[in-house]
Amino acid sequence: MSRILAVLALALGLVGCGTEEEDKQILIEYVTKLKELDDKNRQIVDTIEHLRKPLSEISEADLAKARQLINEYVAQLQTFPRDLTYRELRVTHNLYVDKASQAIELSGDKGREMRREKSNVDIGVRHIEKFTKRHHNGMNVLWDRHKLPDFPLEWPQ
Question: What does the alpha-carbon distance between residue 35 and residue 80 come to, in Å, rounded to a whole number?
Answer without folding.
Answer: 12
